[in-house]
Design a protein that fits this description.
Layout (H helix, E strand, L loop, with lengths): L5 E11 L6 E7 L4 E6 L2 H11 L9 H11 L2 E12 L2 E10 L2 E7 L1 H11 L2 E5 H7 L1 E2 L2 H4 L5 H13 L8
Parallel strand pairs: 4-7
Antiparallel strand pairs: 1-2, 1-7, 2-3, 3-8, 4-5, 5-6
């Protein structure tokens, strides 16, 4: 993993859990075949998807408003971190820079991710969380030369076979 206990992640995609009908945001360890699926709520999934699909609205949505407030107050988002997993609940922080002072704010991972994709902030997860809840998608290595849409379809099929209980 990493030297400082945190690993850089990227948003791999979104999926729907067929068992619970809950959206899942999937983070990927950069340069590895390791993923961190996080079950999230419908409104946060919609917010993340809208931004990933570059949909714009005349009026700011909740996560747009939150970022506007951060910016108007002279702060900037440095990074978000998925910090812990307790009782099947993920925890996160948002790190802000306010005039050279670092401030960390508690957050749900889904809200933090929605803000990160709007601000360009980097996404990290603690190595402990990745070890506890991260999964490897073994078939990806065998599909290195396959078209991206085929790999994504195979990954979605795999995600449809897992449930939150598989990550206990």
């Amino acid at each position: 993993m990493s030297a400082d206990g945190f690993t850089k992640m990227s948003i791999y995609g979104m999926n729907m859990d067929l068992f619970s009908s809950s959206p899942i945001v999937i983070l990927k360890v950069e340069d590895e075949n390791r993923y961190l699926p996080i079950w999230i709520g419908q409104p946060e999934a919609r917010s993340i998807l809208m931004k990933l699909q570059n949909q714009e609205f005349v009026r700011p949505l909740t996560h747009d408003l939150a970022l506007n407030l951060v910016n108007e107050l002279g702060a900037s988002m440095e990074r978000i971190t998925v910090t812990a997993l307790r009782d099947q609940t993920f925890f996160a922080t948002i790190r802000l820079d306010i005039d050279g002072k670092t401030v960390e704010v508690d957050s749900r991972p889904s809200d933090a991710i929605a803000l990160a994709i709007r601000s360009g902030a980097e996404i990290f997860a603690s190595d402990e969380v990745i070890q506890e809840a991260g999964v490897e998608f073994e078939e990806a290595e065998a599909m290195e030369d396959a078209p991206e849409d085929e790999v994504v379809d195979k990954f979605k099929d795999w995600m449809n076979r897992v449930s939150p209980e598989d990550f206990k």
